[in-house]
């Protein structure tokens, strides 16, 4: 059997691949095959805080360790609350804005969900 997804418009099972596109013969809908793979990869991305709580975009977190800022004499102190985080790919998986410091990227292992 085919491992191709069903058509997003008519839910037909008779989808076929034509180069980089997936095509439904029943409704003639075409969509890129990579878009389906990107959605699957995004859904499997799980980021947890230091305690093991699941983090999502828009959450508030608290810093659990003093963090020195590279190239600066400033420090993010323990207990600093960070609101409205955004999850990103990479080593530092949280993108946020900290009051008094500005835009930063943090590692999830140094925060806990507030």
Defining traits:
YjdM; YjdM_N; hydrolase activity; 114 residues; 11 strands; YjdM_C; N-terminal domain of TfIIb; mainly beta; SH3 type barrels; elongated
How is this structure best described in words?
This protein is mainly β and 114 residues long. It contains one helix and eleven strands; from the N terminus they run βββαββββββββ. The chain folds into two domains: 1-40, N-terminal domain of TfIIb, CATH 2.20.25.10; 47-113, SH3 Domains (SH3 type barrels), CATH 2.30.30.40. The strands form four sheets. It has a three-stranded antiparallel sheet with strand order 1-2-3. Strands 7-4-11 form a three-stranded antiparallel sheet, with no helix packed on it. The protein is elongated, with a radius of gyration of 21 Å. The termini are far apart.
Task: Report the span from N to C terminus.
Answer: 47 Å
Spatial ordering of strands, largest sheet: 1-2-3
Main sheet attributes: strand count, strand direction, barrel closure:
3 strands, antiparallel
Shape: elongated
Order of helices and strands: EEEHEEEEEEEE
- Name the structural class: mainly beta
The number of helices is 1
CATH topology of the largest domain: the name is: SH3 type barrels
Note poorly predicted spans. Answer: none
By CATH reckoning, the class of the largest domain would read: Mainly Beta
Keywords: Hydrolase
Organism: Lampropedia hyalina DSM 16112
InterPro entries: YjdM (IPR004624), YjdM_C (IPR013988), YjdM_N (IPR013987)
Domain Protein YjdM N-terminal: 3-32
């Amino acid at each position: 059997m085919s491992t191709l997804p069903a058509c997003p418009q008519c839910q037909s099972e008779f989808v076929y691949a034509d180069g980089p596109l997936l095509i439904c013969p029943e409704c003639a809908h075409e969509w890129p095959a990579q878009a389906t793979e990107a959605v699957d990869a995004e859904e499997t991305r799980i980021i947890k805080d230091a305690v093991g709580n699941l983090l999502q975009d828009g959450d508030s977190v608290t810093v659990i360790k003093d963090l020195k800022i590279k190239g600066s004499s400033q420090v993010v102190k323990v207990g600093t609350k960070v609101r409205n985080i955004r999850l990103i790919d990479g080593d530092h998986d949280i993108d946020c804005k900290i009051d008094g410091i500005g835009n930063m990227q943090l590692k999830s292992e140094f925060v806990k969900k507030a």
